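Lay summary. Proteins are chains of building blocks that fold into shapes, and those shapes determine what they do. In this project we predict the shape from the chain. Here is one chain we studied, written as its sequence of building blocks.
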Amino acid sequence: MKNVTYILIVAVAATFTASAAAPVQANDFGWGPIQIDIPGVCPKPCPRPVPQCRYSVTLYHPISGGVVWSTIATSQSQATQIANNYRRQHWKIWKYNGIGQELHSRQFSSYYAAEKYEPPKKLLGFNKRYVRAGKVSVQKL
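And here is the predicted shape, written in a compact code that computers can read:
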């Protein structure tokens, strides 16, 4: 009986010294109905992840309304910078004289570049020529 008692004392002492080396959760040692709580060895709570807002910045074509470019930004300042770059995009739009002629367009990086551009000439000439900016939207995801 003494041997069993000594073995249990040695096992508890070995477990206690092993637990001092590695942090464990309280109530970690459970042998059936017996639970050993070690005060002060509880792990620190995990930091909660900080929710990150994402922004979708989209540039739309001025004639068709279709998406030309779309980008995901991770911060408000980055979304504003991308939106400002998109707002500089302009299109030169022109239409030739004649029945059934369609609108043509070409994208430029600035208003002045679009204004200077001369589209190819045709025999009947131009009906319309103008510069237009695309629509930019910034949405919080």
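What the prediction tells us: DSSP finds three helices and eight strands in the chain.
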